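Duplicate of #3305? Posting structure anyway:
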């Protein structure tokens, strides 16, 4: 008799509305906990991902300046009626251009020629016709070096619109001319006589040019 009563009471407990409510609440809590754990795991993963650098900028490695090549120079003296202009040229950095310039100097090509172009920012010479249209009878290829730019006191080869058209004409800058960078062969710089260059007028002669 007691056993039957226990079984009956057991069945009544599970079917009791309060029991069902408790079970439902417990199930909802368990689902909620599981969901919260899942969200937390996803958030943790996302947090770890956002901590990683995105498109991290790589360090810029600058190319070292070849000081040895800059130190390997030859000296050029331009004698004028106003005084001497001394240049240093860079045969290691600009081998084709300097070799051509040296050849012309040793052949005395420049002796007696004039500075046919003088402006507030530049002087130019080396034309046998004195008009800016002449040359030695040949042309050389364009050389460019990233460490040699068009600044005041720099020496470069003049040319026509064609890149490989320089011959004998050269210019010396009285002012910076960055817009020429990359298009003209800068091969030397003035070491003495910038005050002479600032005084040069159209028609002034190159009495003699020597290279050492």
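Output from current build:
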């Amino acid at each position: 008799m007691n056993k039957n009563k226990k079984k009956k009471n057991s069945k009544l407990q599970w079917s009791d509305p309060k029991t069902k409510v408790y079970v439902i609440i417990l199930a909802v809590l368990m689902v909620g906990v599981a969901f919260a754990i899942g969200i937390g795991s996803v958030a943790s993963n996302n947090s770890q991902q956002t901590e990683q650098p995105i498109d991290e900028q790589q360090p810029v490695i600058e190319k070292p300046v070849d000081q040895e090549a800059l130190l390997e120079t030859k000296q050029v003296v331009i004698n004028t009626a106003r005084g001497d202009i001394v240049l240093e040229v860079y045969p290691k950095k600009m081998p084709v251009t300097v070799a051509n310039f040296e050849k012309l100097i040793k052949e005395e090509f420049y002796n007696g020629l004039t500075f046919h172009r003088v402006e507030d920012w530049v002087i130019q010479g080396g034309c046998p016709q004195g008009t800016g249209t002449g040359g030695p009878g040949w042309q050389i290829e364009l050389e460019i070096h990233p460490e040699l730019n068009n600044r005041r006191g720099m020496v470069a080869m003049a040319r026509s619109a064609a890149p490989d058209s320089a011959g004998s004409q050269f210019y010396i800058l009285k002012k910076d001319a960055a817009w020429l960078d990359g298009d003209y062969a800068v091969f030397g710089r003035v070491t003495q006589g910038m005050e002479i260059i600032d005084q040069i007028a159209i028609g002034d002669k190159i009495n003699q040019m020597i290279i050492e």
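Confirmed duplicate; merging threads. Confidence is low (pLDDT under 50) at residues 1-12, 42-63. Residues 17-51 form the longest helix (35 residues).
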